[in-house]
Amino acid sequence: MTLEEAQALDAADPLRHARDRFRLPDGTIYLDGNSLGALPAATPARLVQTVEHQWGEDLIASWTRHGWIDAPRRVAAKLAPLLGADVDELLIAESTSVCLFKLLAAAVQAQPGRSTILSQEGNFPTDLYVAQGLTELLPHIRLRTVPAGEIESAIDEDTAVVMLTQVDYRSAARLDLASINAAARARGTLTLWDLSHSAGAIEIDLKRDGCDLAVGCGYKYLNGGPGAPAFLFAAGHLQGRLRSPLPGWMAHAEPFAFEPAFRPAEGIAQFLTGTPSILAIAALEAGLDSFAGIPMSAIEAKAAALSQRFIEEVEARCGSEVQLASPREPSRRGSHVSFAHPAGYAVIQALIERGVVGDFRAPDLMRFGFAPLYNGFVDVLRAAETMAEILRDGSWDQPRFRERSRVT
Amino acid sequence: MTLEEAQALDAADPLRHARDRFRLPDGTIYLDGNSLGALPAATPARLVQTVEHQWGEDLIASWTRHGWIDAPRRVAAKLAPLLGADVDELLIAESTSVCLFKLLAAAVQAQPGRSTILSQEGNFPTDLYVAQGLTELLPHIRLRTVPAGEIESAIDEDTAVVMLTQVDYRSAARLDLASINAAARARGTLTLWDLSHSAGAIEIDLKRDGCDLAVGCGYKYLNGGPGAPAFLFAAGHLQGRLRSPLPGWMAHAEPFAFEPAFRPAEGIAQFLTGTPSILAIAALEAGLDSFAGIPMSAIEAKAAALSQRFIEEVEARCGSEVQLASPREPSRRGSHVSFAHPAGYAVIQALIERGVVGDFRAPDLMRFGFAPLYNGFVDVLRAAETMAEILRDGSWDQPRFRERSRVT
């Protein structure tokens, strides 16, 4: 692909206008929106409005006057179309880990007589840690992990819940929601999906595909800002069977009655806990607004086109120096691509110094995320060219690039 | 007290300069900082810095470049002197409810053979809800509540943990940390304190008073903004005995190693969970900075003076129409004062319409919080005068004031 071809693809891109919804520093090709999404142009003003005009002027009255009390559900309603969920099935709450704990504990408690949480070997570590934490609390529950290809066959009558990540954080390999959900349902097992690396990047239809429970991250493709609140999904038909293990006052049927005994709110609100950060939710709302008017089918199509072009351009320029570590077929990937290189860490640092921001995952993966709302084909070309340059001139091989920082 | 006397007290107030650290709307006497603290003048710029310059320009690199990764501990270090805690004993994390769950579950698990969580009748409802949620998860654990006066005698060999709120959210009655901690320690029981209505308002010395565990709210007297992150304290000598039930990736000994098995970080960091909201923590940091250079002894002294004057001025003007529902002795109160009135809800609405913002707690309590950093003696006088006016002229007795909103 030549620069002219890349420019022509960008010019013809139906999502090109969405790039103006973001602020990105000049000269940076940002391919790490799968880790921290870019800043939406609308976010600063939204925060000023929330802080100076709402909090600063109306103070406590803002809980009603500016709808703060409904923020977790109002903002969830903006997320619902991105996930194929009903608005009554979604909440904004805390972090992915805390949301996962709530749903995992609720799922296990709703399945008496079943003792296994089934997950995938190599699932995102924090998900496994949360499950391990739950098994320490509930000694009759165990966590079992199997390779991706054995998940469906490993579901049995002892499996309380299958806890999986739709898109793998390293390889971007995508699991088949519908197929695994069907296998689980046939055995009376619940499914709990982590959508952190898929929400906002690919088309998801939680209802059509029969998902029971899901959580996901607000600060990756949803552009909610660093440590943005997460989301939590529980299928409507299940909500009556579930009890939150973390019932704070916001989950009460009448939060302002201050009753001594907990009575859960009906529906998804029972999964609220304490008072959520209104500032963090305001930023997430601005992030979700950056999807306005854009169907997820168009986003997924562009994600596939960008990532596919990137694979082709890297392989054409770098040959066997790097190894594709992601599925080659776009429908089997999320919106990031990983290449393995023995000195991947140093290569990524050298890329960052030249303005191409990807990231590294041990032991040897260079990871590049394509955010369809703000990345384009010229980004893809420049990134592939820069990687080829760095590998060709050996400029990655310097102590300052090899030295690991604590955070990668 | 005359206006001139109140003005003279304000002029002589050694904390008067701190008022300039806040933005408050003209014409409002804000006596609800015990529910939502006022906006610090520094907060908007701090958020702009975090959002536009850190997130917007440095993107993912901000995790190291701007110290985001250390934010929960860095900001906790600013809180430590307000609580008499070591910096290694405190964390900023999620909400009070989630922090309470973590410590309550850890405390119960650290006390094998003991099955009771002891609390106070009428403790803040969300605290009781969280405890109830834990007992549903752990059926061998039960929650027992007793009146305040019976707490110490109710602690026995079956009591795993005593979970109490230092300052009651309705009456402002203050429990004696040192005495209850000593009684608990004598019986091998742990103590878990909710400091939500005391942190930032009165002098607290968690170490001197022998507290084991504590949590508290960031958005009341700490001025962290609506739904600000909470804090969590675990005494250093206990940390090795405790295991968090919610071990997310931030709690791992090497978070960026992405190991499949959880290995807890040493010390207080094991109580981290998922990625915290950096925007919410930045706002909380600005809130804590509003305490810079001001000893908590001066804050408690002013809280006592303001609240005592308020009681005197209200009683002098309103006589027996209102009943003091808080302890009369300042050392036995927090920094808010409650008066009972049969039509308390309507009276509070009428007060708010005249610019005096207090709040209402069922069934009949009118609650007024005095934030020593920004409230003064003229506020006290105006509030008492306005209440007397409203009771005298009967203007509270209108349908629009009687009609309850969902949020009070």
| Largest interface pair | A-B, 90 and 90 residues
Share of helical residues of chain A: 25-40%
Number of strands of chain A: 15
Residue fraction in strands of chain A: 5-15%
Report how far apart the termini of chain A are. 30 Å
Number of domains of chain A: 2
Please state the oligomeric state of the protein chains shown: homodimer
Low-pLDDT residue spans of chain A: none
Describe this structure in words.
2 copies of one chain form a homodimer. With 408 residues, chain A is an alpha/beta fold. Chain A folds into 2 domains: 3-40 and 295-402, Aspartate Aminotransferase, domain 1 (Alpha-Beta Complex), CATH 3.90.1150; 45-289, Type I PLP-dependent aspartate aminotransferase-like (Major domain) (Aspartate Aminotransferase, domain 2). Chain A is built from 13 helices and 15 strands. Chain A has helices at 3-12, 43-58, 62-65, 71-83, 96-109, 125-137, 151-154, 177-186, 278-289, 296-318, 344-353, 377-393, 399-402; strands at residues 22-23, 29-30, 39-40, 90-93, 116-120, 142-146, 159-165, 190-194, 213-216, 230-234, 323-324, 336-340, 356-357, 359-361, 365-369. In chain A, strands 4-10-9-8-7-5-6 form a 7-stranded mixed β-sheet, sandwiched between helices. In chain A, helix 1 packs antiparallel against helix 12 (377-393), helix 2 packs antiparallel against helix 9 (278-289) and helix 10 packs parallel to helix 12 (377-393). Chains A and B meet through helix 2, helix 3, helix 5, helix 6 and helix 9 of A and helix 2, helix 3, helix 5, helix 6 and helix 9 of B.
